[in-house]
Every structure is written in C-alpha cells, then in structure tokens.
Write a structure and sequence with these properties.
The chain is mainly alpha-helical. It folds into three domains: 7-108, Fumarase C, Chain B, domain 1 (Orthogonal Bundle), CATH 1.10.275.10; 113-152 and 164-356, Up-down Bundle (Fumarase C, Chain A, domain 2), CATH 1.20.200; 370-460, Orthogonal Bundle (Ribonucleotide Reductase Protein R1, domain 1). Helix content is 60%, strand content 5%. It has helices at 18-24, 27-30, 34-50, 56-75, 87-99, 101-104, 112-147, 168-193, 212-218, 228-233, 236-262, 290-314, 327-350, 356-361, 370-379, 384-401, 410-416, 430-436, 445-460; strands at 153-158, 161-167, 195-196, 223-224, 270-272, 352-354. Strands 1-2 form a two-stranded antiparallel ribbon. Helix 7 (112-147) packs parallel to helix 13, helix 8 runs antiparallel to helix 11 (236-262) and helix 15 packs across helix 16 (384-401). It starts with 17 loop residues before the first helix and ends in a 7-residue tail after the last helix.
C-alpha cells in the first residue's frame, strides 16, 4: 500500500480530487501526535502478538520499524506527504514501505477512529501535567513576591472603588488560590479522560479476539471505555480541557487587567520590568504593558476554541463523524496559548516591584477605615445596620469638609452616637484596621503569613494536592 493507494480507496471509482486532499488533510496539525501514535501502535502490535493474531517476529519488525520512524521524525528526516491525510496513515504507510507485509498487519482490529481517540487522550495526559507544572511556577512567583509584602498595605477594591485596606501579600495570594482551583480542575479532567478507547474499532468493536485491557495497561490507562460507540465519539474530555484553559485564561486576564491599571500613573502601585513592556513608535516617554494587554486579549481566542468545539459536538449524530477531526485544532490552540501565558505571567510577576512608599502616601484617601468603624460600633452594642447608617453620615460630613474619619474630634463622633469613646482612634487608619482583622482568611498580616506558610510548604511538593 502506498500513500496514493490506500485500501479504502478501492471502494471508490476515482482518486480524490486535489481540492479534496487539501480540504480533508489533518497532517499539517496532527503530526504533533506522532509519539503517541507510535506508542499506541507498539502497544497494539504487542497485544496482537499476545493474541496470536501476528507472530512475535512480525511484532519485533513492527516495533523496530516504528522506533526508527520516530527517530526520523524527531531528527527532521521524515518526509510528510499530505496525501496520507493524517499522522496515522503517514506512519503506517512509512512502516509498510520499510518492513513490508508485517506493517500491513498493524491495523488489525483497530480503526483510525479509535486510534485518534487514543492518541489525543495520551497527548492530553501529558499536556495537562505540563500546564499544571506551569501553574506551580506562576504560583511560586506570586508566593515569592507576597513574602516581601506581608506588612505593606494597599487598598482593596470593589466596583473599582476603594473598599478596605489589606496587606499586599493577601492580594497576591488571592491569585494563588485561583490557580490552585485551575490545577485541581485539570487534575480531574485527566482522571476522567484516562480510559482507553483503543480496540473499539470504527464503532462496534471487532470479531477478532483482541485484548483491550492489555493495551490499556501498556499505555498506562486506568481502564477502558466500555461502550465502543461512545469510545470513538467521545470528546467531552476535550471540551472540558478547553473549558479549564478558558477559566484559567479568565484568571490571567483579570490579573493582567489589575496590573495594567496598577502600573499606570493614575495608580502608580507597581512597576513592571522594562523587559516585559514596550514603548511607543511616536511617544518616546511611554512604557506600555503590551505583554499583559496581549494576555488579556488571548483569552478571547481560548473562549473561541471552547465555543468551536462545543459547536462541533452539538450537531453530530451518534458514532464517529469526520467533524471530530477538527477537535485537535481547538484543543492544541487552547493548550498552546495557555502554556505561553502561564510562562510569561510567571516571568512578569518575578520581575515586578510594588511601589510601597507611593501606595502608603495615598492610603488614607477613600475612607478605607469606615467598615472598621461600623464594626467598632457593633462592639458597643449598636446593631450593624444602624451602625452602618451612623458611619455613612460621618463619612458624608468628612467628605464635605475634606477631612478623614480620624480627624474628627471625640465630640463630633458623639454627635453621631454617644457610645463612641476615646478608644475609637485605635480602630481608625489603614494600619490599625489591618492589624485588627481576626477572621480566618482575612487580609491582615497575621492571616497572610499563615496563608504564605501554607503555600510555601504546599508548593514545595509541586502543588498537586488540593486543600
């Protein structure tokens, strides 16, 4: 069998038109599966020999030929011909040319349908671990930066308005928490996809006595997919994987948005290293956070990949359809973009400095201690809703007069409510507020140090265990 004489073409009266060849080929992008295709083929051939469907000598010839093909591809010596359509036929055709008849027996008891379903699962198992390692690197960068700022303060925002004071470490560790959920989701995705479809054939299995459990064990799968129809048509795991990437991209985009704002002159909270900025072609003073802007934009491409795959899946009848060939375009794209964004995000975090003096100089603006004052009134026996109204009136008064809460006299405080005593001043000001946070997970220095210690220990073990 040659690349231009494939067995299934004997059913057709004419060779495919060149337009058809160009339109249906997937070799241009699925060639990256070659290692997994070869590993799967060796496992399949070993099983065929065990089941006496081929001889041990034929198995050895197949294995040797496939290893040589893998080495040639790795070294760039392998010539890919688009007429082969996909990586499976490119490898099989090359094998037959090298070893003859034994190579033509390799496809016994399997179809390209279960073959590609196996390849993509094997590839995703490794890719998920690569992404999880990238998550750990980014988490470690956040933790290292947080360790330098357990006492330094910044405002926290709701509705992009100043809300309450926090330590910078707590802010940074919030991203570590988000990334941990991303890692757990990927781990769960890997668990669900770790079942072998190999041997399900085109849709109904085989009349030959193949051993699917054998190939599953050889390939490190936890089990097999038990229904042959579902085995060849299931791409739920692909959609779930892209969703995991999409949510991770959302987290990275929100991080990017924060730091784009925080690096501006209007905020001036941090400085990103020049290596991760660009300048303007016209305005020589500019330091633009272009890398973060592109990270934010690339989220849309990953969302697009998810919508594309879901759309591919929703319109198909049961069983394998050629539509599924397109799944890899979107899975590969989402994986590649996510991996690059994780890598550069870790580099940016590692080379960013918070401008703590500048932040501290403007920290009193925005009445960040208002909530703490309301809670102070609660300790004096005033219901929170009533306390909320009292403090709101005091804030309005200070705003009109251009003063801060801590600048009110005790008499002025008592105009709001007589329960206020001189100790009220111990509860005002950003530094006093953050020291008084006592609830678990709060954004004060003590809580941040406890969280930091947890993450330092957790990530030292690679961060693969959920909390």
């Amino acid at each position: 069998m040659t690349d231009t004489q494939r067995s299934w073409e004997k059913r057709l009266a004419a060779k495919p038109d060149e337009l058809t060849v160009d339109y249906v080929e997937s070799l241009s992008y699925d060639r990256r599966l070659y290692k997994y295709d070869i590993v799967g083929s060796i496992a399949h051939a070993a099983m065929l020999a065990q089941q006496k469907l081929i001889t041990q000598a034929e198995f050895r010839a197949i294995e040797k030929g496939l290893v040589e093909i893998s080495e040639d591809i790795e070294a760039g010596r392998f010539e890919f011909d688009k007429a082969a359509e996909d990586i499976h036929m490119a490898i099989e055709s090359a094998l037959i040319r090298r070893i003859g008849e034994p190579g033509a027996k390799l496809h016994t008891g399997r179809s390209r349908n279960d073959q590609v379903a196996t390849d993509i699962r094997l590839w995703l198992r490794d890719e998920i671990e690569t992404l999880r390692a990238g998550i750990v690197q980014l988490q470690q960068a956040f933790v290292a930066l947080a360790a330098r700022h357990t006492e330094d303060l910044m405002p926290a925002y709701t509705h992009l308005q100043r809300a309450q004071p926090i330590v910078i470490a707590a802010y940074l560790l919030s991203f570590v928490e988000q990334l941990e959920r991303d890692s757990v989701r990927l781990r769960n995705c890997r668990t669900l996809l770790n079942a072998s479809p190999l041997g399900a054939g085109a849709i109904a299995g085989s009349t030959l006595a193949i051993d699917r459990q054998s190939t599953a064990r050889q390939l490190g799968f936890a089990d097999i997919v038990y229904n042959s129809i579902d085995a060849v048509s299931d791409r739920d795991f692909g959609a779930e994987f892209i969703f995991d990437c999409a949510l991770m991209a959302a987290h990275l985009s929100r991080f990017a948005e924060d730091w784009i704002l925080f690096s501006s002159n209007e905020f001036g909270f941090l400085r990103i290293a020049d290596a991760f900025c660009t300048s303007s072609s016209m305005m020589p003073q500019k330091r633009n956070p272009d890398v973060l802007e592109l990270m934010r934009a690339k989220t849309g491409a990953i969302y697009g990949a998810l919508v594309a795959l879901l759309t591919i899946l929703k319109g198909q009848p049961s069983g394998y359809n050629r539509d599924l060939q397109e799944d890899k375009i979107h899975i590969f794209s989402a994986a590649d973009t996510t991996a690059k964004s994780l890598e550069i995000a870790a580099a940016i975090v590692a080379h960013t400095a918070f401008r703590t003096q500048e932040i501290a100089a403007g920290l009193d603006a925005g009445f960040l201690d208002a909530t703490a004052l309301a809670e102070y009134l609660v300790t004096k026996g005033i219901p929170f809703r009533q306390a909320h109204g009292i403090v709101g009136a005091l804030v309005a008064r200070c705003e009109k007069q251009g003063r801060e809460l801590g600048q009110l006299s005790l008499e002025e405080f008592r105009e709001g409510t007589p329960v206020i005593e001189a100790d009220v001043y111990d509860h005002l000001g950003a530094a006093s507020v953050v020291r008084r946070y006592v609830s678990a997970g709060a954004a004060g220095p003590e809580q941040a140090r406890r969280q930091l210690a947890f993450w330092q220990e957790h990530l030292a073990g690679q961060g693969h265990a959920g909390r």
